[in-house]
């Protein structure tokens, strides 16, 4: 993984700057953090094709989503001067007021796109092998729960259990996430997939 810091000056277009940076540097990744403000925000709300425009002193609350060599999918939330928080799909025309710092993280594109055609009916496609005291195991389960992804949890309690799952994954760290009985990865891979498609391809 490689971090990148973007410092945007006044009158910069938020989405165009990320598009251009990822395209010129041939990058794939996601937005990790943002601090800044806007004079204008253009967003599309769920189920509404119209672009909504807001103007004023708008403080950026969050910016989430991914970029892929000039193609982006980003969600913006911001607060107006009365601290009302508004959010939606980021569109061109969202203009920086004083300045905005954005942290991007890029990585090699190994995301797996899987259709639901091979789903096992009435059975969770995701199986998570975990250790009881492992913080990364707990984070993985919280992530799966927060996105309503059906999953089966298998607690590794002894060497026999470990040898069994290790023979399937050839992997020694935990958690170990399997999709349709094929080893997918650990928490990092799960988190990256969540940034890409909210784990919808795991349902």
TrEMBL record:
PPC domain: residues covered: 1-127
Domain of life: Bacteria
Listed CDD domains: DUF296 (cd11378), GRX_family (cd02066)
InterPro entries for this protein: Glutaredoxin, PPC_dom, Thioredoxin-like_sf
Gene3D superfamilies for the chain: Glutaredoxin, Hypothetical protein, similar to alpha- acetolactate decarboxylase, domain 2
PANTHER family in alphabetical order: DNA-BINDING PROTEIN, PROTEIN, PUTATIVE-RELATED
Protein name: Glutaredoxin
């Amino acid at each position: 993984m490689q971090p990148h810091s973007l410092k945007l000056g006044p009158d910069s277009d938020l989405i165009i700057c990320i598009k251009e940076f990822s395209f010129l540097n041939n990058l794939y990744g996601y937005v990790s953090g943002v601090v800044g403000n806007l004079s204008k925000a253009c967003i599309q709300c769920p189920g509404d094709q119209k672009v909504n425009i807001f103007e004023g002193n708008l403080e950026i609350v969050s910016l989430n989503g991914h970029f892929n060599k000039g193609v982006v999918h980003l969600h913006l939330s911001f607060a107006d001067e009365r601290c009302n928080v508004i959010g939606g799909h980021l569109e061109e025309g969202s203009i920086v007021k004083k300045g905005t710092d954005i942290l991007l993280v890029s990585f090699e594109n190994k995301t797996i796109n899987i259709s639901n055609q091979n789903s096992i009916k009435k059975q969770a496609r995701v199986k998570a092998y975990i250790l009881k005291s492992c913080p990364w195991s707990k984070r993985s389960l919280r992530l799966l729960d927060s996105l309503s992804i059906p999953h089966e949890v298998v607690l590794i309690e002894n060497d026999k259990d470990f040898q069994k799952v290790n023979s399937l994954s050839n992997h020694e760290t935990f958690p170990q996430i399997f999709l349709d009985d094929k080893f997918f990865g650990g928490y990092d891979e799960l988190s990256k997939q969540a940034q890409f498609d909210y784990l919808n391809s795991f349902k």
